[in-house]
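RECORD TYPE: inverse folding
INPUT: structure tokens
STRUCTURE:
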């Protein structure tokens, strides 16, 4: 009986710990989850699509042009940063895969706009076996790269086969089957020509419109213009934090008040009614 009591006590304690951990653990940010899902969907959008052509400088000398290599070799683009720990950890795997297939593989490390001497030290210290180019951020933007490392595999037909965010823990598992299939296509002379690759239609990625809309919305949000009675009211209303009138303060509280001032009808209303509208009436978004 005593042993059962001890067992129940331990079980109760374990349950209490689990409940505490559940309650104490921060709940998932629904906005972050939605953004992550959106990013994953946008990654999948690339599969089977033609990538943008680009030309970037090698770390030492010369230029890499995608269209000059496409169709002749499989291309793997590995987007990385020197401060990224997973980027460093995956290098041995990438080196091994590159050395195994270098006769038909152009593997290119794409650094994200860091200083040349910093990247050179990283490449030497980590023993990177494949060539590296430095992107000023434009290629990263075109591919909508949201995290490092991200690796993209392009077949000899010029289309994207893999879009892989995250560290490559086993390159053979991820790339080997596709690589073997590409070898056969290459041996059969089915690689796309540079001229044909450049003529292929490129669809506008869905995030191009989204980012444009977000930029326009942010610009509109940043510019709050008040006129007439709304401007007069803002000049005689003061921030409870800094004491400046609303036209001189840009804290979130004052910005929200100014947004509401833009929507209020001042005709025939007293200052008291305006104040009630501003601070006591639920704001309809």
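DESIGNED SEQUENCE:
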């Amino acid at each position: 009986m005593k042993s059962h009591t001890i067992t129940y006590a331990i079980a109760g304690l374990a349950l209490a710990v689990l409940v505490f951990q559940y309650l104490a653990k921060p709940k998932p940010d629904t906005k972050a989850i939605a953004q992550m899902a959106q990013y994953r969907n946008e990654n999948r959008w690339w599969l089977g699509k033609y990538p943008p052509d680009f030309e970037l400088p090698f770390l030492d000398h010369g230029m890499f042009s995608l269209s000059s290599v496409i169709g002749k070799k499989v291309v793997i683009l590995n987007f990385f940063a020197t401060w990224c720990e997973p980027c460093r950890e995956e290098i041995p795997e990438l080196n091994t895969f590159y050395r195994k297939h270098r006769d038909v593989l152009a593997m290119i490390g794409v650094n994200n706009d860091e200083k040349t001497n910093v990247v050179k030290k990283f490449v030497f210290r980590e023993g990177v076996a494949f060539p590296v180019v430095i992107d000023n951020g434009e290629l990263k933007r075109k591919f909508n790269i949201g995290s490092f490392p991200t690796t993209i595999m392009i077949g000899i037909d010029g289309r994207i086969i893999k879009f892989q965010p995250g560290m490559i823990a086993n390159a053979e598992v991820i790339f080997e089957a596709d690589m073997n299939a590409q070898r056969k296509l290459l041996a059969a002379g089915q690689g796309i020509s540079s001229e044909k690759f450049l003529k292929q239609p490129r669809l506008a990625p869905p995030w191009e419109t989204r980012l444009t809309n977000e930029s326009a919305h942010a610009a509109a949000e940043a510019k709050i213009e008040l006129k007439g009675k709304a401007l007069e009211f803002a000049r005689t209303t003061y921030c409870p934090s800094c004491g400046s009138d609303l036209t001189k303060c840009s804290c979130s509280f004052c910005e929200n008040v100014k947004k509401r001032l833009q929507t209020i009808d001042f005709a025939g209303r007293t200052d008291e009614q305006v104040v009630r509208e501003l601070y006591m009436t639920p704001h309809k978004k």
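NOTES: Residues 181 and 245 are 68 Å apart (CA to CA).
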